[in-house]
Amino acid sequence: MLGATYSLLGIGLTLVFGLMNVVNFAHGEFYTLGAYATFAALVLGSVNFFLAIPIAIVVGAAAGALCDRVLLRPLRGASIDTVMLVMIGVWIAMQNAELLGWGGVAKNIPTPLPTQPLTAGPVSVAPLRLFVFVVSGLLILGAHLVLAKTKLGRAMRATFQDRETAALMGVSIDRIHTITFAFGAGLAAAAGALLGPVFLLYPSMGDLASLKAFSVVILGGLGNFAGAALGGLVLGIAEELGAGYISSGYRDAVGFIIIVVVLLLRPAGLFARAERVG
Amino acid sequence: MLALERVTARYGAVTALRDVSLTVGVGEFVCLIGANGAGKSTTLKAISGLVPAAAGRIRFDGYDIHGLAPQEILKRGIAHCPEGRRVFPYMTVDENLAMGAYVRRDVAGVAADLERVFTHFPILAERRRQPAGTLSGGEQQMLAIGRALMARPRLILFDEPSLGLAPTVVETVFAIIAGIQREGTTVLMVEQNAYVALQLASRAYVMETGRIVLEGPARALADDEHVKRAYLGG
């Protein structure tokens, strides 16, 4: 059920990598930001739970846009390593800002959803988890439609495939970069807003989320949207099975064992088609 | 229509263009010939805004377009059909053509131009949903030309349209470009195949190591001793 949020995380990361060639180590921090924004809107702003989620997405996207304008725009054309180091800096700065702002005590997001599990035959699921799954699915579908069907999505893909020619078509490359980064950050924030109520909020919660996002991207293949969507589900299911059949303490380990196996056997990712040439 | 006055451009420390001056009149077919690395492509990139000119002026319709972003230059009516076709390989033929009309807002006009492109290039109509990377070289060149036309430009810059194409396809591509110019679009073409270029164009410039070394009516240049020796193989 939670695999769909892994997909959201992975899609955001893979888009930013594929389009902008930025390895976003701060990805998990946008996830944390989304969770805290939901908490702030809900508890401090006393906004409705269902409204707090879109607010969190907007906050995450706005923070992403700001990060791109201020930090990444001057580094266009810089080496991927330089940008990587800057993103590690962003990661540390954001995490400590969260610690400063919210303190180290874990927080809990209350939801209006019933806690009584829904049962259908032998299957039972908490309504909150079902809600998280459905909303994640809708967001993934929405992100896919934006990329595949809209003029903006076309411009994003064109920029990805051939930056210079996209500029010749009249695409403002800087604008596409900012939008893409905001898009990725917004998806991470959405995952944070959705998973926040399932788990507890604490300033370093983004670290594990980052690791999961990278795992998903490795599973699906770098820059591969469908791969990230499927990779997230695979990782989620593998973790559930691992937790159920081995021990719940091994939940996270199972995911990472799969990554190691995939990297050994299919380094281009589970869903990679032929290697790209040229 | 288009006038470059003493344009200089650099890539880092390397000067690619030195004091390049050229003009293109409304409705003309002008070509720019010269060896590899002479600065022909850079000249086109300076016009379309991909390479900033370090010095000099570029005027289009009397307005200074030097320093404008590529999309502003495109909106003023200059389309650039780049060297090596540069279609978006993972996007369909339809999507590539839609990218050509990216800056346009007139939906009806875009639809009409799409029809026009399909009339000119029936092969593209047959492959609308196919990724552009799966087309043959000649088909990709037609797509690149169609994509440039989708901007409904008044001036098209062609960069080596014959590069890497089979001889029979080269003939077709040049016939298409000549047809575009006859229909009223002004053409500035960079071409290594000097023989054909000088037959098609009305005027020509010859570039060597970043400078314009000769200019004149295409027919006169075709008879010029230096041009014959250097570019026409005799």
Fold and architecture overview:
The complex is a heterodimer of chains A (278) and B (234). By secondary structure, chain A is an all-alpha fold. Chain A has a domain at 3-112 and 123-205. Chain A is 71% helix and 2% strand. Chain A has helices at 3-20, 27-44, 49-72, 80-102, 127-149, 151-161, 163-168, 173-195, 205-220, 225-245, 251-265, and strands at 118-120, 123-125. In chain A, strands 1-2 form a two-stranded antiparallel ribbon. In chain A, helix 1 (3-20) packs parallel to helix 5 and helix 1 packs across helix 9. Chain A is globular and about 55 Å long. Chain A starts with a helix and ends in a 13-residue tail after the last helix. The relative contact order of chain A is 0.21. Chain B has 234 residues and is α/β, with parallel strands linked by helices. Chain B has a single domain (27-51, 68-231), classed as P-loop containing nucleotide triphosphate hydrolases (Rossmann fold, 3-Layer(aba) Sandwich). In chain B, the strands form two sheets. Chain B has a six-stranded mixed sheet, with helices on both faces. In chain B, strands 2-1-4-5 form a four-stranded antiparallel sheet, with helices on one face. The interface between A and B is medium-sized, with 16 and 23 residues.
